[in-house]
Design goal:
With 106 residues, the protein is mostly helical. Helix content is 69%, strand content 11%. Strands 1-2 form a two-stranded antiparallel ribbon.
Length: 106
C-alpha cells in the first residue's frame, strides 16, 4: 500500500510524555483531497478570504478610532453642552416652544 505519512511533532513537543502521533492517508485519498483543496482555493471567495477578513477588521478599527476622536472633539468643543450655556439655551428653547404654540389671528 502506498500512502502519505504525517507525523504530528507539535503535540509531542507540548506533551513531553507523549510520543509523536502519526496519520497514514492512502495516496488516492491524498490526491483527491489535494485536488479539492486546489479547486477550492481558486474560487475567488476562498482565495481572498484572509485578506478580506483582515481588511474588514482593520477598517472597523479605523472607524472606531475616528469615531472616538470625533466624540472627544465634540465633548471638548461643543458649546451647547457647556454648563455656562446650557441653562440659557434651555430657557431659550422653552420660549421658542411657547411661541410656536401660540395661536395667531390670520
Amino acid at each position: 500500500m502506498h500512502g502519505i505519512v504525517h507525523v504530528y511533532l507539535d503535540r509531542a513537543r507540548k506533551n513531553q510524555d507523549v510520543d509523536a502521533s502519526t496519520e497514514v492517508v492512502s495516496l488516492s485519498e491524498w490526491m483527491h483531497e489535494s485536488t479539492m483543496f486546489n479547486i477550492i482555493t481558486n474560487i475567488h471567495f476562498f482565495k481572498h478570504y484572509v485578506k478580506t477578513k483582515l481588511f474588514k477588521i482593520w477598517m472597523a478599527n479605523v472607524r472606531k478610532r475616528v469615531f472616538n476622536q470625533k466624540r472627544t472633539m465634540l465633548v471638548r468643543n461643543y458649546f451647547l453642552v457647556k454648563p455656562t450655556f446650557s441653562k440659557h439655551l434651555m430657557d431659550m428653547n422653552k420660549l421658542m416652544h411657547d411661541l410656536s404654540q401660540t395661536k395667531t389671528i390670520s
